[in-house]
Amino acid sequence: MPDSRLAEAVELSFGRHETFAPRFGWLHKAYMQVKENSDIFHREDAPVELGVGKNMVYSMRYWSRAFKLTEEYDHEDPKQRAKLAAPTWRARWLLDEEGADPYLEDTGSLWLLHWWLLSAESSKAKCWAPSWYVIFNLAPRSRVTSTEMTRVITRHIHENFPEKDWPALESIARDVDCLIKMYALDQEFNPLSPGSFEDLLMSPFRELGLLEGQGKGKERTWRFTNGSRSNLPAPVLAYACLDYASRFASDAGSISLARLAEEEGSPGRAFRMREPEITKAIGPVISKHPDLQIVEALGQRSLRFEASPLSLAWDVLDEHYGHVRKRDGFLTPEEWLKQYPGLDGTATKRTRKRLPRQAEELDLTKENA
């Protein structure tokens, strides 16, 4: 029987990263191209325009979507099978040359992207990295080998989805390898893995210090670190807490700190922080905002918000980055939707015969190749 929200939280997307973890500069470069060319990921000159190899183009496409920086929609010409891409408003807010942090120089931006990657915001904005979702939200907090990670992910997928949707074991194993390359500070160079050496040097998410290894070879174990996060800005953590709360309350209300720390899909799971650490870390933000406070009743502490939690989340985050939304010429989300109608589903849609899951994975990377 299903034991989690997994089926509602994730899209069954495996191995679409082409074994490449996201690298420095990829997301900004992809955003700048997608902003002008909705078909960039399918063009013959994409490797030249993006400055990467062909397989890396597929990887950039996947990561842009997984971080919720792009959305894809059908081409208006029904003969064109490849989907077009549009940059989301949050991508504009973060990665534009006039945005918050286009080159991801602030480690807080990496934490923010990590949160967006794992988040299941709604039925239209699920997590596109199910292996990552399982490992952070459902896996035991003990040391595990990469083989054990693969088994844990496989078990949860099998328990929550019908057999016809199960991915190949090799696809999950590739996800685990990519996840380790993405976060681990002390990786081992794998000569059989494409781009392994470059990944050791070029994955910015290693700066988060989330994953550490012990031992060597097949018996090497991995452990997600826990505790206070000195390089996680309090406003980014507060944003994540309020963003999570907004999925349960659209107006003023509260959410217990225990839920924020322990619940599946919560900031505590994503950032590997416990309740006391979250409470202490968001304290400076709460002291500055009259609409936020920590209250205690019946021995339980809660984060109370006196306005829409999502609006407060963006207020806190935007203030941390110097009030990006107040800069001259910055478009509102509504104005951005008018510029990119593919984001709200108003672009032409067409029905398409549903492919088996494994065929869909192949189709994503090979279409218009």
Order of helices and strands: HHHHEEHHHEHHHEEHEHHHEEHHH
Percent strand equals 5-15%
Overall mean pLDDT: 89
Extract low-pLDDT stretches: 348-369
Number of strands: 8
The percent range for helix content is 40-55%
Principal-axis shape: globular
Alpha-carbon distance between the two ends: 40 Å
Quickly give the structural class: mainly alpha
Radius of gyration: 20 Å
**Strand arrangement, major sheet:** 3-5-4
Task: Give a nutshell description of this structure.
With 369 residues, this protein is mainly α. The chain has helices at residues 6-9, 26-36, 46-50, 54-66, 89-95, 107-118, 130-137, 146-160, 169-183, 196-202, 234-245, 257-262, 267-271, 275-288, 309-320, 333-339, 357-366, and strands at 70-73, 84-87, 144-145, 211-214, 221-224, 253-256, 292-297, 300-305.
Task: Write structural notes for this entry.
By secondary structure, the protein is mainly alpha-helical. The protein contains 17 helices and eight strands. It has a three-stranded antiparallel β-sheet with strand order 3-5-4. Strand 7 (292-297) and strand 8 (300-305) form a beta hairpin. Helix 2 (26-36) packs across helix 4 (54-66), helix 7 (130-137) crosses helix 8 (146-160) and helix 11 (234-245) packs antiparallel against helix 15 (309-320). The relative contact order is 0.14.
